[in-house]
């Protein structure tokens, strides 16, 4: 059976991920993501009203015109988890394909919300839930399986397409976490089985984000322990404490909520995306937040909440807000600018349970945000975080488990692939033979 | 009563700490340290055979000639903990003073060993043990108290000289740890009492090492959780695993020993200073190591141990060795050079539970050491560590607890004092009024 | 005669410089600057309409309320050169003092323009021109002298107040340039004389910006040679070339204009501040630009010029524009956004004859600007620049020339003073004795 | 005609360059270099006594065993210039091939000296001089041509193998300098001709060292202007001035010698490699040093010279010495350690006309060296240098001139190739089609 892999997007950048695997006449698409930074650099761009081709020209969504080179039918569009760089282009591209979107329940829910915000296209693909551990048939001879992985968002999976030629494992994005805070550990057992059963693994497409970093990515439980240390250290403080983290990072939000209670404060989630992700997680029963946990997204209800906090006493609350990267319109930045009813006083604490994404734009914005907060007397606790991406040792362990015949480095540009290539070369792989260095828009023929 | 403070050493560098406080006719000396980097830059220097004046000229030990400006008698020499930059000059300078060395039991033991290695001077000062929480009289009207603090070595204290004019608190070195792994938490309760009782705190001398870093220094329990995550992740590995850390860091060594057992390996401590510090801690009952824990310092017994390990199987052992900074003659560096019987194989793990001290010499040596280890196939896990020094928020909390009248930034040069001065200025202190910027060799008159 | 120095602004930051020297009953004020970054961090602030006290609270202009502590009359307000951090607060503060503004002709002209833009206050102080080498009497026994120095703007001087107790030399800002491109070399001869004549130098107030950088600041002629190399290397290019630099940097603009001609292109200056500074320099005969050199500041005339260039051929022109720091509203940034009629093509060259001022906000903006330019195909040449501030060796040479009794480090915060203090300590000065570490709002009494 | 390219060494590192081109039955080898850092990391290795296979195992010299895969006869071994990473393995590998070493006269002379130092092998290949602009026949249908380029050593060329299928241009190493200080500018005219004549350029092998750096590498004349600025600024100093630079950098040494004279000092070259390179350049008439210029390499004559300098007065001399990277045994490091008769005094100047090669080992050694020099009172001037390798714009211009069909990035590892690939992709090249990403030991078939 012919096996081809089209590396459509996310092979020259982080963002706009999209990969298609053709096995015989059947095609499965993995991810359809958005590169938000290509949008934000322009002023006043409203992506929800834009046409696909313009977004492709901007480098914001994958250029899927290469799909015409694959002879077969798309059977499924499979976003691996709910981050925007994996689902953000579904509203712009999915309607071109007569195939359902298949994902885990949490991811499906986020896709649904994404589609509701779209104004330009009418995406009517079927949205089909499938949980980690489950499978579905793809054509007559292939099978799609979801393997549970741990990442900085819940319900993430690595999809595996089982073909007669062996398995194609799509490895974006994950950390190897044996003690995550919410959910189960990564299912390494299953990866090891896949590596040994049947024809083994034909191809492994891997997330190279942290491939150049030594050692292993710490478990979420390490970040949790660190966060606990910080929060208990301010237990006796009788003024304002504010925390921020990635809205979609449900485990971290859970820890913040829990520790708030531990130090005698009422947590409250503020900001549109805070409400969106945590609300969704709660509705779908992924987490069991306290009954009295407030979540407010609309400007008015946020401001009303802030007024209540100011009235009842800042020392009673822990607002958990958006703005960890200093985004100009996020809640924390607005608090820094004094645009909300919440007044910061000298000595108030601001906890960034996040790391600045290392890019000058972010660094500049975050710096501005911290400056504004400090001008109002705030004290900053930062870098209470662990990454969601494998480092060197995780990569070694995945190679050891899967023993793939072919490797396709992904989720970076060539410079980012380089350390992964070094690592794989040390394991006996070779560029041009079984390591495939590719760019956006290429098709790699694995089995003729 | 006249109160003067002589800032003798460690006010233009980290290393060679020495400060004297005169209260009326009585003087107490805090610390007599060695700046090892000023020694190591020269080839073939044997400090144990050198005269004080030569070491002073080298900038290696404090220039205590300023002591002649203080009119009074030295009543005690008080090293705060057992690190070399606090005790390393006792063998060169203490004999000039007719006063006992007063320190906690662990520190006293390390001083004793230091004196035994000295060849040039015959130091016969009385070595007097005093534990945290205890006090001794200094002259007729003053009292010396030890307050328990947490640092990267056990049995560290902050000495407090109670005078009729208020307390002089010598704050070198500490982290504010409420959940250290060995020992009790820092005694903040006592600091708060001292800040409020009697005349309050006249002067606080503070360790500025991390004063420019945001947030709080994480607890040792965070490093321990991180270390546990790393060690359990290699539980199934059936080859060699080697760990290194600061020899004097008994809490960390304890965690390494414990986790080695958890993953089914026999820990063994190797290297002269590993044997020295851990042996001392065990003899004095600070820790309760497993009965079968081997500690070997002499080259021959180390090599014999390595041979036994190679014979019985590397997968049965966890050697815990010296060399975390890539020091050219340390055990791990020798292992990298292939100079020991322990043979590293492809995939073997080396765990650095330490951070590179950020200075080009260390960085160069550590880089070389890692290159050598990697050439032999080793995989590196690094930065599993937390600092032993207060960051911003710890400093705020100390100022809040002690409410000192005067501040003397220490344990840095002027550039290192700058962030502390900014921080204290924000709390109402002012340079030239109550913040005393000083250099080595100055005398500050606090009460005339 | 009593001599006091009030360090009013610019002693905790770079920006809002202001220092007053009282000699007996007479006071001279050096600089009244604006810290623009404290303004720009807020949205929509229009400084020209704001009250002084609000700007003081923002940290934007010097808090001159300390002037009430000086018993004497202000005889002159002396801005040393035309940069905003030295003249930008004159419009807000000068009217409080019954004294003329005394400066070199180019600086006076820039002050005049600054005052014309002010809406809130009516500043009617006399504007008095005095050239380098000239003097004026201050009261009965003092004399003010201007010594010519070299900086990144023309007509910069260091003012010297000669008093019966010795000279007070105000050393902000300068580079020691023996081969500047426009103007004469720095007048080191005169500094050496001042150091040796009469009572010598009582006090030297020094610009510490680059005090921590090794070696010497290169001459403007080095930047010119570098720029020439770049420009001749693109001589054969037949598309668009655009250059940007500091608008106030007349020497650099002159070199750009000259090299444009050398490679057969017509230079044209575009952007409000480009027109302002170069127009002023030409009107006052500091430079002799080609007769056909266009300068356009208003949006409409700029756009008209761009249209003409597009019509006649980009290969015929070298637009020299604002925007070297990626300022969001500057000309080059607008070009990057495609908001001007000038269309960049693949391969067009953009020459940054400037260095990014190392602060995350600038770095973020400049990065965004370069990204936008590159999206349009532009190629970037950057860092063709030399600093306008003394490095280590310049400081040694100034100390050697002046041999001052007292030193006051300035134009930085404490951290920035630290390397200068180290340097001066090595020359025998001592903190607290003759090195005065000061903050905003202090008064230092030198002679009682 | 079949054309194959074997990328033997220098495709995973900088160092041990070696590439072979087979055109039909004839093979030409370009470079045989040594990776010195792989040697120096081991203690006490004497390469001159070592066997090739051991050096190959160490990664120090190219693993030329892949040559057996090329079916043809080696007709020439062509080192492009005299740097060790291009000629350092000739003594270990050339004797395996029955072919002459063909190089420019200066390079041949350095190869000869290299061979004389070899103890293990007896290399008797013919050493054949050929100058830039000249050609020789390779087999019946090919021709080898040398094109003059500018680099940080004189007499560098880019060899071109003209084949019936087009030219193979070997582009290591060069800067595009139109105003070098010694020698002629780079022969861009000839490159443009080669790009347009006959079959054009089949393949271009390119040095990617600086491919990720914006703009263009400045001309040597820029470094010279910078150096002149520094040296004239110390013209009046009446103590010791010492300079260091790359010994093989004849242009820079020439400038140092000339400026020494300009400021009234007698230059003298000290250190083994200083004597070697400059002596060779002078003997072969590449430079015309003053008759009285002393060059001393042997320890005894160096010390004698230092003694003479100390006796006659340091202010009369400019010693130009080895040690710009802080190499532990180089002359300047020995001066810092006080191991030579030359005594440094407070205020003496040390001029580093070199940049630290950015690698932690060098940075550590250089830092130590500067610390030692400063302890003796020296003042440091550093970074007076320009690179010898093309940056982005040079690469664009080379592609424009040659218009090659195939590209092989070289002189870096994959991470270093990445920016060059980006650049070439922007020009229409594509990985896997005409950009060949390769590693050591590969053979690329260009024409079958």
UniProtKB/TrEMBL annotation, chains A, B, C, D:
Residues in Metallo-beta-lactamase domain copies: 15-226
Any GO CC annotation of this UniProt entry: cytoplasm
GO function terms (MF aspect): 5'-3' RNA exonuclease activity; RNA binding; zinc ion binding
Sites where the protein binds Zn(2+) 1: 81, 83, 151, 173
Entry cofactors: Zn(2+)
Compartment annotation: Cytoplasm
CDD domains named among the record's database cross-references: RNaseJ_MBL-fold
Domain of life per record: Archaea
Top EC category: hydrolase
Enzyme Commission number(s) of this protein: 3.1.-.-
Sequence positions that bind substrate: 385-389
GO terms (BP aspect): RNA catabolic process
Keywords of this entry: Cytoplasm, Exonuclease, Hydrolase, Metal-binding, Nuclease, RNA-binding, Zinc
Free-text remark on how the cofactor is bound: Binds 2 Zn(2+) ions per subunit. It is not clear if Zn(2+) or Mg(2+) is physiologically important.
Function: An RNase that has 5'-3' exonuclease activity. May be involved in RNA degradation.
Annotated family: Belongs to the metallo-beta-lactamase superfamily. RNA-metabolizing metallo-beta-lactamase-like family. Archaeal RNase J subfamily.
Subunit structure: Homodimer.
Record PANTHER family: RIBONUCLEASE J (PTHR43694:SF1)
Protein name: Ribonuclease J
This protein's encoding gene: rnj
């Amino acid at each position: 059976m012919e096996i081809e892999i089209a590396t459509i997007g996310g092979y020259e950048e982080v963002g706009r991920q999209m990969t298609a695997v053709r096995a015989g006449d059947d095609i499965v698409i993995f991810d359809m993501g958005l590169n938000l930074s290509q949008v934000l650099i322009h002023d006043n761009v409203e992506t929800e009203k834009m046409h696909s081709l313009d977004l492709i020209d901007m480098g914001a969504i994958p250029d899927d015109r290469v799909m015409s080179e694959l002879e077969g039918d798309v059977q499924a569009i499979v976003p691996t988890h709910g981050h925007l760089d994996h689902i953000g282009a579904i509203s712009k591209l999915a309607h071109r394909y007569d195939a359902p979107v298949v994902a885990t329940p949490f991811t499906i829910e986020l896709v649904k919300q994404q589609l509701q915000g779209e104004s330009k296209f009418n995406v009517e693909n079927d949205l089909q839930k499938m949980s980690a551990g489950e499978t579905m048939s793809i054509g007559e001879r292939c099978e799609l399986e979801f393997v549970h992985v741990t990442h900085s968002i819940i319900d993430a999976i690595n999809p595996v397409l089982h073909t007669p030629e062996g398995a194609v494992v799509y490895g974006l994005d994950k950390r190897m976490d044996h003690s995550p805070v919410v959910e189960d550990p990564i299912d390494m057992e299953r990866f090891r089985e896949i590596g040994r059963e049947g024809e083994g693994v034909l191809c492994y497409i891997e997330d190279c984000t942290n491939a150049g970093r030594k050692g292993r990515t710490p478990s979420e439980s390490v970040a949790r322990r660190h966060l606990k240390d910080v929060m208990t250290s301010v237990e006796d403080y009788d003024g304002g404490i504010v925390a921020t983290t990635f809205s979609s990072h449900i485990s971290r939000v859970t820890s913040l909520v829990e520790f708030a209670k531990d130090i005698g404060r009422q947590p409250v989630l503020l900001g549109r995306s805070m409400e969106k992700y945590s609300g969704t997680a709660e509705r779908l029963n992924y987490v069991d937040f306290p009954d009295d946990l407030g979540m407010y997204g609309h400007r008015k209800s946020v401001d009303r909440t802030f007024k209540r906090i100011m009235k009842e006493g800042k020392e009673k609350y822990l607002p958990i807000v958006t703005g960890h990267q200093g985004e100009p319109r996020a809640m924390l930045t607005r608090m820094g600018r004094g645009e909300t009813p919440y007044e910061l006083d000298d000595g108030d604490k601001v906890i960034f349970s996040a790391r600045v994404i290392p890019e000058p734009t972010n660094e500049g914005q975050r710096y501005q945000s911290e400056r504004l907060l400090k001008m109002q007397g705030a004290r900053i606790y930062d870098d209470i975080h662990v990454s969601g991406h494998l480092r060197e040792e995780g990569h070694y362990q995945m190679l050891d488990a899967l023993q793939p015949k072919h490797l396709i480095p992904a989720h970076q540009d060539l410079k980012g692939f380089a350390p992964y290539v070094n690592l794989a070369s040390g394991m006996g792989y070779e560029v041009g033979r079984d390591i495939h260095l590719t760019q956006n828009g290429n098709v790699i023929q694995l089995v003729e």
